[in-house]
Design brief:
Distance between the termini: 39 Å
Strand content: 35-45%
Shape: globular
Strand order of the largest sheet: 2-10-9-4-5-6
Largest sheet: 6 strands, mixed
Number of strands: 10
Helix content: under 10%
Number of helices: 0
Order of helices and strands: EEEEEEEEEE
Amino acid sequence: QVQLEQSGGGSVQAGGSLKLSCTSSTYDFGWCEMGWYRQAPGVDREYVATLHMDGTTLYSESVRGRFTISRDSARNTLFLQMNRLKIEDTAVYYCLSDPFNSGNCDQYWGQGTQVTVYS
């Protein structure tokens, strides 16, 4: 069972920044669309951002202008740079390969990374 490996979460004061990473030593997702999702307590998992193969990016309304999704193909690593964090960004964040199930890649989730933003 392949699982993407995440790192970079933690606690930060509102207005601060964090950078999440997602990689795999067993699955090369260099040709995959990649996405980030998050889940707060008592709330369904929600979409955050997508990185398409042509380099275009999409973001949810709630994070647009503050978060940036990117990848380092040579390191097989996906990133989520989160700036100007808000308390409502507190959630467990997950990376996902082939988020729209295009069939070009296999779908694998990361294990989740806790992000806590405090006032």
